Amino acid sequence: MAIRPPTPTRPTAFEFFAGGGLAGIGLTAGGRGFQMNFANDLSPMKARAFRDNHPDVPLHEGDVWDLAVADLPGTPDLCWASSPCQDVSLAGARGGLEARRSGAFWGFWRLMQGLDAERRGPRIVVVENVVGLLTSGRGRDFATVCGAMVEAGYTVGALEVDAAAWLPQSRPRLFIIGMRGVTGAEGPRPVAPFHSRRLMAAHAVLPDRVRAAWAWWRLAEPPRRNVDLTGVLEPDAAVNWFDAAQTERLLALTAPLHRARLDAAAASGERRVAAAFRRVRVEAGVKVQRLEVRLDGLAGCLRTPSGGSSRQYVLVCEAGRVRARRMTGREAARLMGVPDDFRLPGSESGALTLMGDAVATPVVRALTEQLFLPALAGA
Fold first, then answer.
1. How far apart are CA 282 and CA 285, in angstroms?
2. Does 345 reside within a domain?
3. Which of 83, 20, 30 is nearest to 57 (CA)?
4. What is the strand order of the sheet 172-179 is part of?
5. N or C: which end of the chain has fewer CB within 10 A?
6. What residues contact residue 369 under an 8 Å CB cut-off, 6+ apart?
7. Which pLDDT tens digit goes with each residue over 226-269?
8. For the whole model, what pTM was predicted?
9. Treating both helix axes as pointing N-terminal to C-terminal, what angle do 44-53 and 348-356 enclose, rounded to 10 degrees?
10. 320 and 247 housed in the same domain
């Protein structure tokens, strides 16, 4: 256990694989949460966005493997790692933690071990990733991350949280949380919705030593979400719409059932807004690109422009016709809970990449206010 200096007015946090610093926005909780004392990211574009929006937070731009423990200031109370997810995503090749990008986790964990060796390790460690980590490597990757925390003396638990509880975007993510020397809110058994069946299945096959140090962290379900997709969109006159030929080419990718729903919405006489994204599906043994449409008030999970579902589209059904356009970077930022004064990269591709790789800020804030801060306050 680290010997800690006197506690500052606010607890301190480090953010690894920080991107534009969205986890930090949630951790600071409007100035009532953590003080961000260090951040790291490899991407020059993301590092520029981070500096634009968090000029007072020290940022190391470069590979986490190039960081030394001496580069890390002071004794953090919490360390957050949104390590790259491409190799454990359900949409990816599933290379697992041994793959190069997701193996960056070990670059982060090496630093946690180094902080421990200097008796300034954090009391809380959070690893955020896609839910595919639960089954990546046939469950070995999830067990390995949890096992590393337990070996370091942490009580470990996990939550599967969908940003759709707060925002009009379907974005389930896994949060593995380790606590040491502090006690977080927990229950005697898993409880929906944040302890999903797939999380419980992954827990059931963990090694005995990990399950012996397990906690079912508790997070209250938020009030009913009061905004849908229309609430984050730009005015019609402020965006560029496809022409008739472009729209028809896009809609031609729609499966018959989805097209029937769109046509019905257009004929209803009401304005209906849908999100759509392209997927490759196998039909009759053949790979077919399909446009999949949501008319439930939610966007699909944001990804980078080169990701599994590519860039999303906005469809507006009105007056007997369907109009189409691409979703903008600012709209994507709103879908992540980012305020409009957040400075996005100059290009749409950069803005969409920044948001597609990020974590939804209201989710982090809920974890901060309900789990992290109460645990540290009770220490």
1. 6
2. no
3. 20
4. 59-61, 35-41, 12-16, 78-81, 124-129, 172-179, 155-162
5. N
6. 29, 33
7. 899 999 999 999 999 999 999 999 999 998 898 999 999 999 98
8. 0.92
9. 80
10. yes
The model's pLDDT over 341-352, given as tens digits with 9 standing for 90+, comes to: 999 999 999 999
pLDDT at 273: 96
Assigned domain for 2 exists: no
Q: Which residues are 158's β-sheet partners? A: 176
CA angle 372, 376, 379 (to 5 degrees): 145
- For residues 252 and 259, the answer to whether their CB atoms sit within 8 Å is no
For residue 282 the two structure tokens come to 């196998």
Query: Could you tell me the end-to-end alpha-carbon distance of the chain, in angstroms, rounded to an integer?
Result: 13
Determine the pLDDT at residue 2.
45
- Would you say residue 94 has pLDDT above 60? no
Is the model's pLDDT at 86 over the cut of 60? no
Both 209 and 124 in one domain: the answer is yes
E strands, the chain, are 12-16, 35-41, 59-61, 78-81, 124-129, 155-162, 172-179, 186-187, 216-217, 272-283, 286-294, 313-318, 321-326
**If pLDDT is split at 50, 70 and 90, which confidence band does 8 have?**
low
351, part of any domain: no
Based on the fold, state whether residues 214 and 249 are members of the same structural domain. no
CA distance 349 to 332: 11
268 lies in a domain? yes
For the chain, the domain total comes to 2
Whose tokens are 């379900």? That residue is 221
